[in-house]
Amino acid sequence: MKTLLKNCRCFHYMNEQPVTAIVNIEIENGKISNILPLEKEISTAYDRVIDCVGMEVYPGGIDPHVHLSAGSFTYVKGAGQVSADSYKTGSLAAIAGGTTTIMDFAFSQFETDTAKDIIQHRLDVVKADGCFVDYAFHIALTQPSHVSLVAQGSTIEESFKIFTVYRGIKIDDSRDLFAIMKEIGANGKIAMIHCENEQVIAQNIRKLEDMAMMSEVRPEWNELESTSRVLTIAEIIGCDVHIAHVSLPDAVRIINVYKKRYNSRQITCEVTGHHLHVTSDEYKYSLFKEDLVMSPPLQSEAAVKGMQKMLIDNQIDMAISDHCPYTRSQRWGAEKPFQINHLDKQYYEMPAGTNGIQVRFIAAYSVLKAANVSQEQIAKQLSQNAADRFKLTGKGRIQVGYDADIVVVNPYVQTIWSMDQLKENMDGSLFDGMKFRGKIENVFAKGRQVGVDELEQGKYLRNFQ
What we know:
The protein has helices at 87-96, 115-129, 149-153, 174-186, 198-204, 214-217, 220-237, 249-260, 274-277, 282-285, 301-312, 328-332, 360-370, 375-389, and strands at residues 2-14, 17-28, 31-37, 48-51, 56-59, 61-63, 99-106, 134-141, 159-163, 190-194, 240-243, 267-272, 318-320, 406-416, 435-445, 448-449. It is an alpha/beta fold. It has a domain at 61-365: Metal-dependent hydrolases (TIM Barrel, Alpha-Beta Barrel), CATH 3.20.20.140. Strands 1, 2, 3, 4, 5, 14, 15 and 16 form an eight-stranded mixed β-sheet that branches. Strand 15 (435-445) and strand 16 (448-449) form a beta hairpin. Residues 75-79 and 334-344 have low confidence and may be disordered.
């Protein structure tokens, strides 16, 4: 099918040169086949012509941080749950919200697993579930001995995930971090790191009497100390770093200090939708406290406003979801659904994570649009920066030859988020009732119009045999 999107106001590339203008975009065989100036006469040979006058057009969103069909993380014991969204339901939610490419995490299943085995385990799950967006993985290193997986994994993927928290998978000893990050740097890859201090949390859980005490259990310096330590090690040994789900403006400031002194290595960071819109007041007032078990925690109103400003000021590279959803029944266990009259210590026995894959694009777009930032910046923070950073070939740009992953946004109306539009396999949303600037009017995944055409199965974006 040959499709024309006409009157598209977009940031795009013409002969590798960045341009923001109104153009006509030609789509054929799943690719952007041509970008035409408005003055060029439109052919009648198109199977479909869609007028995007008044709309803003962006490359399909890229969410480089999701957990689909994933085992649960807890602080004190394994909950044995699998995240509520499969690759099928999660990808359908993603694509409904303008995200057409995701990056998930590949964990070892057995002690004898090679890096190739780890990837194959995930590919088997994707095949069983079905997935409607393209995807790649970060290889998770969860034991000091996994340093041996780095060289193997570097022939397949671009990044390795390290957790400094969660019993059973954390690597928080500085000597172990040094060894693993040195190997990642030597292979020219990226260490993606969850920065919190496990010792702080473990000590402070003992005094937790109410969820309203969350700021005491996990104070801000918990994240700041870990971020500083990780970046210091990275600077010493020469390792590219991507700091996951930054939740505090001061953490961004620390990252910026290291960026200025990093001597040719690269540091990037990301922020979730909930850390842009939801405050720690929820710990006091929410009727469903189990929905708030996540890491890092929700932060103060001042921190949320500060993170919005950091995104607007282009101090944060990517907007992500960290979509790791668990229903309330999963949180409590099937025998105790929807109960909240337990000691709050039990919240730390629940699987940690929250949902947001569907709202990610419009939640970040709303913050940026309210500040009247350029389409170029929006396109980069919601798509291109992730594609460039993690080498997602054919993704993240409106450019001839790239995949025809396209999002059409009406900037003049608002989206009121509600449960009845949720495609995620969830019974709640932290964003329920929120108003966002803009509305996603159309999504195309490799040229196929979501809600109109039959969608293709997504593909793994790496060479893997």
